[in-house]
Amino acid sequence: MAGDEDVTIIGGGIVGLATARALVRGGAAGRIVVLEKEPAVGAHQSGHNSGVLHSGLYYPPGSAKARFARTGAEAMHRFCAEHGVPVRRTGKLVVATRPEQLPRLAELARRGTANGVRLSEVDGSAIAEREPQVRGLRALLVPDAGITDFGAVCAALAAELAADGVEVRAGCELRSVRRDGDRLVLGTTTGEVRTRFAVNCAGLHSDTVAELAGTRPAARILPFRGEYYEAAPGRRDLVRALVYPVPDPAFPFLGVHFTRMADGGLHVGPNAVPALAREGYDWRTWSAPHLRRLLRDPALRALAKRYWRTGAAEIARSAVKPLFVRAARELLPGLRGTDLVPAPAGVRAQAVRPDGTLVDDFLVHEDDRWVHVLNAPSPAATASLRIGEDIADRVGAKLA
């Protein structure tokens, strides 16, 4: 299928769709098309997550995550209200269960305050009053944290784009890129697309798309699978809202936590284990090319050496349910293994630098024809409308 577009977006996840929306609202882009390799939008990270609307608590002041999370969450609340997508401000507790966690809790409070997040410190009795089955020494109460359904957000974004005349081509996978004068020619599974500019929002495949475009990405994607359990019927009242542990500052994951979902269910997790394929949602799904790259890539070997203890513990929790339950019981001592049943997993696209360090912030690379979003993990869904505006501004400067 041939076309002549002004801007083509690769990836119909929440960031790609939000970027298309921002381009339409900015009015400078002209013809826009979104290419999505799956049969429907939001098929991977955008549709496989906890649905939490983050407040900006965790991120270093001045970082893109810190700047976009708080304003992005407010924009997402408004979008959901306008489009009939379920959304609630549930509030969140980040709970210290051991004395050695208290300095890290204080650092979180400092970061949150610097980022403009409303928060308060509460003691053990206040924790029990808010969450009767949770035990802890102290906690941060973040009243503006909330919950939504990001899969439903993607569907609403796609419907809005269709009404605005933006085509979202599902089942259209990018296979090649070449230049033809002042146009990019994108070879896809449904034919060629000619476009002035392109935006790479391919998530788990963002580094591969960058390579197709002739760019050596500043980081490579390492997929991490996050495995969840959910509360069995009759046990959804174990937690009322959102309850998190104090995270390890050396690792960009938030630990096993409790999330009341938009549908009223209670999810517990995730862990963080290396996936054996880019879309490896279980241990049975693996890719020989992906595994060969893992074995040969010095950056990933350096990462494994640095975090092998953490990685081994996460893999053990994946393989042995009682170890997962033990981690969750730090926050909820009365939890039993029979309270939890397996729930669908998600896969996070985590960028890794050549020296083996994990990229902690959003990462964007530009050239004369492309904007590549090379790292957009959590809170990217929360911040997606703001990220989309930022990308649209970058593209608009090229169109001018």
Report on this model:
The chain is of the alpha+beta class and 400 residues long. Among the domains are: 4-46 and 151-219 and 360-399, FAD/NAD(P)-binding domain (3-Layer(bba) Sandwich), CATH 3.50.50; 224-234 and 267-358, no CATH class. It has 11 helices and 20 strands. It has helices spanning 14-26, 64-83, 102-114, 124-130, 150-163, 206-212, 288-296, 298-306, 308-319, 321-329, 380-399, and strands at 4-10, 32-36, 52-53, 87-88, 92-96, 120-123, 138-142, 146-148, 167-170, 174-180, 183-188, 191-200, 220-231, 242-245, 257-260, 266-269, 273-274, 340-352, 363-366, 370-375. Strands 5, 6, 7, 13, 14, 15, 16, 17 and 18 form a 9-stranded mixed beta sheet that branches. Strands 1, 2, 9, 10, 11, 12, 19 and 20 form an 8-stranded mixed beta sheet that branches. Helix 2 packs across helix 11. It starts with a strand and ends with a helix. The model has no long low-confidence stretch (mean pLDDT 94).
Name its key features.
400 residues, FAD/NAD-bd_sf, single chain, 33% helix, 8-stranded mixed β-sheet, 9-stranded mixed β-sheet, FAD/NAD(P)-binding domain, alpha+beta, FAD-dep_OxRdtase, globular
Report the total helices.
11
Give the class-level CATH name of one domain.
Alpha Beta
Overall mean pLDDT stands at 94
Low-confidence parts: none
Q: Separation of termini?
A: 28 Å
The CATH architecture assignment of one domain turns out to be 3-Layer(bba) Sandwich
Helix content: 25-40%
CATH homologous superfamily caption of one domain:
FAD/NAD(P)-binding domain
Structural class of the helix and strand makeup?
alpha+beta
Determine the strand fraction and express it as a percent band: 25-35%
What is the CATH T-level topology of one domain? FAD/NAD(P)-binding domain
Largest sheet: 9 strands, mixed
Backbone CA Rg: 21 Å
* Overall 3D shape: globular
Total strand segments: 20
Protein name: L-2-hydroxyglutarate oxidase
Cofactor: FAD
Keywords: FAD, Flavoprotein, Oxidoreductase
InterPro entries: FAD-dep_OxRdtase, FAD/NAD-bd_sf
